[in-house]
Every structure is written in structure tokens, then in C-alpha cells.
Predict the structure.
Amino acid sequence: MKKDGHRNLSRRERQIMDILYQRGRASGSEIHQALPDRPSYSAVRAKLRILEEKGHVRHEEEALRYVYLPTLARDTARRSALRHMVSTFFEGSVEEAVAALLDPTVARLSEQDLDRIARLVDDARKGEMS
């Protein structure tokens, strides 16, 4: 099976990846502090080793500590996760996913938000997505 974003990760591994994508890079201690229902520090280190073995993270040595970074660019991971979400929850329908996002019970969109979305739709029609 093709590696596809977070699909082959446990809940805790996804949480760690989310922290790394938000911060760009973090030490094991920083990740440990940011996790909900904080596990032991050694459990976090073990998960980081697993994520490294799976190819999701890499580490660099900085000032006598390891700093972890995601190996997949955030935009690439975002597109992969979005494809997975549309496929899983909206039966592959981008239209249904967008309709759900525009539902006023889901999001409060300002006039500026709606204008920006309208421009994105216009750009998509012209083949000029930015």
C-alpha cells in the first residue's frame, strides 16, 4: 500500500505529527509537553523512533539534543490528508466536502471569507489556482 499521509499512524503518532507540523520542528521534551493526556517521556521517545523508522520524521542534533522534523512538506501532507478526508467522509465528492464547510452550523464565515472563496472558485474555473 502506498504511504499516504497519516493513514498508517496510530492516534498518538498522529498527535505527534500534528505538533511537528504546527511547530515545524521540536525536541522530544517539547513534544512531550504539548501532548494531551501526556504519556511518559520514554513512550514519546519510542513513538518518535517508530515515526523515524516509518519515514515520517527525521532528527537533527542541536546543542546535545535531538530536534525532530517532519520529512513530508506540510503542503504535501495537507493535500494527502484532504484527499483522504474527501474520499472517506464524502465518497470522493469535493462538492459535498465544500458544501459541508460552507454550512453555517459548521463555520461562521465573514463577507471577506466568502469573497475570498468566490475568488478561489473563479480562479479554479480559469485554471489559475494560487
Notes: The longest strand covers residues 57-62. The CA atoms of residues 12 and 90 lie 25 Å apart. The mean pLDDT is 88.
